Amino acid sequence: MRFKNKRRIIGMAGMMTAVIVLAGCGGCDIQNTAAPEEPENISQLPQDPDGENLAEELSQSESAQSEQQGQFVQPEQSEQPEQLVQPEMSTRQAQSEQQGQPDQSGPLPGTETGDRAQGRLDADRILEEQSFQTELNDWGTVRFVSYEPDPAAGDPLDDVTFYLVKGEEVLYQFPQIGTNGESGYGMYYDVKFVLFTDTNADGKEDVVIGVEYMTGAGSQGAIPHVVVRIYEDQGDYFTYNEGFSDTVNEYLPWESNVLARDVKRLIQLTGGKEPLTDYESYSGKWRVSTGFIAAYEDPSPVSRNELTCSIRNGNEFSGSLFTEQGMTERFASVDDIAGTIEKGELFYEFEDDGWGGTGTLHITFLPNQINVDVLNYQMAEENVIGYGISGNYEMTVRE
User: Which helix (H) or strand (E) is 92 found in, with range?
Assistant: First the structure.
């Protein structure tokens, strides 16, 4: 302000000098043609009201010359204090509060992790195939929503988020598992599954989610791997059980096709509940890992060892064991395996593996793996090549 006042005083002094000079050269003509105006109150200098119009014309002329020379002439401003102008968003917020409706112009709701929130979500970021309408404990009928990171944010480590929604109102945002919006497991890739099940025997369904990440580093960096997170319902909020989640994740092979039923079985086996009696979740084709590349790029393996099993009525097993030598393409198999699984084990005696060999299959069902050990193997005398089903096989990958 001091700079502005100083310029104003100097400008007025110059104008008064010009008025005095012109007054001696016939200024009476100007006085007769000028319209009378209220004189401006300036305490620093006296002002001649007869020369006011001329001073104004000189000031406009000076301003025009300054603009032509590329100079900026500071306009006169009053000494009144500045008034704060409320942004338009605040007006919308006030209107929303008056109408009892959530404001849609502000930031995404639920930024306070685990708090109830109101607002709307961007439909383009909702994973429809992993969002479900469900009846969830005291929450009632709600929609569980999987919500992808904002692509406009430009941060490749931004994590996926999850919400409970009723109608268009966001009721709850599930807690993040990392810090600063990142998971700590790498780059988000996809949501593999969502499972509603009681994980702590409190009579309430909890939420179990399998999220795929890629680390982007190392030989396995570009391979999506599943990380399980377990959220336990505490009534009006959920807690992330990190310890239990880590226990389950330790059993998940990097390259395995992890299914929701596998995780449900792992929760039962590792959660300190009763011994597993329902083995139907093991049904499918299991194989010995030929390396993480084989699981996704499927090159010709050095050998192929597969166990196909179908389990019904909780523990009734039927299936087959197949092995193939990659270089020679020799294969052997034990077909029509059948029996009852008891305490995680199944024994089956076979009389021919395709090469005349005999023995006993000892099949063990581990938390997320099936092991097959061949006991008492006897090779046929006519088998001069020496190939057959023998040894042990660790089936860690489910197709």
Answer: helix 88-99
Distance (Å, whole) CA 207 – CA 19: 86
The pair phi, psi for residue 13, each rounded to 5°, is: -65, -40
Q: Which residues pair with 162 in a beta bridge?
A: 146
Residues paired with residue 397 on neighbouring β-strands, in sequence order: 287
Residue 265: Cβ within 10 Å count: 22
* ∠ CA 113-115-116, rounded to 5°: 140
pLDDT in tens, the chain (399 residues): 433 333 333 344 444 444 343 444 444 343 333 344 444 433 333 444 444 444 454 445 454 444 444 443 344 443 433 333 333 333 334 433 443 333 333 334 433 444 344 457 999 999 999 999 999 999 999 999 999 999 888 899 999 999 999 988 999 999 999 998 999 999 999 999 999 999 999 999 999 999 999 987 766 667 889 999 999 999 999 999 999 999 999 998 776 678 899 999 999 888 866 778 899 999 999 998 765 444 444 445 556 899 999 999 999 999 999 998 877 888 999 999 999 999 999 999 999 999 999 999 999 999 889 999 999 999 999 998 889 999 999 998 887
> What residues have CB less than 8 Å from 308, skipping those under 6 apart?
284, 285, 286, 319, 320, 322
What angle do the packed helices 2-23 and 52-68 form, to 10 degrees?
Answer: 120
Contacts of 40 (CB under 8 A, 6+ apart): 47, 52
Dist CA 379 CA 199 (whole Å):
48
Asked if 149 and 211 count as a contact pair (C-beta separation under 8 A), the reply is no
Q: Which among 387, 289, 392 has a CA at the least distance from the CA of 331?
A: 387
Distances (CA, A) of 248 to 50, 232, 258, 284: 94, 15, 12, 20
Least Cα distance to 127 among 212, 184, 221, 236 occurs for 212
Burial class (CB in 10 A: 0-12, 13-18, 19+), 389: buried
**Domain spans, the chain:** 2-68, 108-274, 292-398
pTM value is 0.63
- Torsion angle (degrees, nearest 10) of CA 304, 387, 309, 229: -40
User: What's the CA gap between 28 and 31, in Å, rounded?
Assistant: 5
C-alpha–C-alpha distance, residues 227 and 48, integer Å:
86
